[in-house]
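Review form for a predicted model. The reviewer records the input and the model, then writes brief findings.
Reviewer: anonymous (R2)
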Amino acid sequence: MLKTEAVCAGVTLILWCCCPLGAEEPFRMADCPSISGGDYRPDRLVRAANLLIGMGADKAHAVLLSEAQKFLDGGGPSSARRDERIFLLCTFLYRADAPKPLRGPGLGAPIVSLQLADWPCQPLALVDGVPLLVAWWGHLVAGGGRETGAEYLEYCKANGVFRKTPYEVPSKAEVLAAAAKLVSSPAWKRIQWPSPYFEKQTKSRLLKQVDDMPERRQEEPANQPAAGDGK
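Model under review:
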C-alpha cells in the first residue's frame, strides 16, 4: 500500500494506491509438461508443483480437480494431455502415509512393467530430488488399465499425504547427473527390456529432457506453503 499527497487549492488530498507487490505467480496447467507431448522438463514440473504446494493441500486439490473436470467435459485445448499433467503432478505432490508407496496412474497395458518397490514414483523416477520421466508413448508405463486424471487425483488424496515443502528447482547439470545415476542404478539394471532397442531409446529420451533447459538454475517466485497442510 503506497500513500501519496497532492495539494490542490489549499486542500491536501491523501491518495492511497494498491499495488500488487510480491504477487504470486499464477498456476497454469499448460506450464506443466506432459508425458506424451515431447515437452517434458524436470524443472518445469518442479515449478508447477511448487506453485500448488504454496497453495496448500485443499486449494491445490480444488485447482487440480477443476482442471480434471475440463478433460471430462471435453473442453479446453490438448485435453488428452491435461490428464497426463495431472498424473505427473499427483505423483510428485502426494506420498503414501504408510510404508507401501502409492501406485502409479493407470496408463494402459505396459510394454515394460516397473516394479513398485523399485519405482515408487512411477511414471517418474525421483533421483536426488530430480523428477525424471521414464514413460513415453507406452515404452514404459506404470501398469493397469486407463484411468482419468480425476480418478487418480481422488485416489492420491484418499491414500496419500500432500507435500508441504517446495522442491528445489534443478539445474541442467543436476538433471544430467541424476540421469547418469539412474541408468547405473540396481533398479534400472533389474528392468526386463523386451529388446536392447527399448533401453537405448529410453536412455536417449532421458537426455532429451535437458535439451531446452538453461545452463544455470533460474530463480523462482517465493511461495510459502500453508501451515499444517501436509508435509
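Findings: Residues 1-22, 137-143, 221-231 have pLDDT under 50 and may be disordered.
Further findings: DSSP finds seven helices and six strands in the chain.
Recommendation: see findings above.
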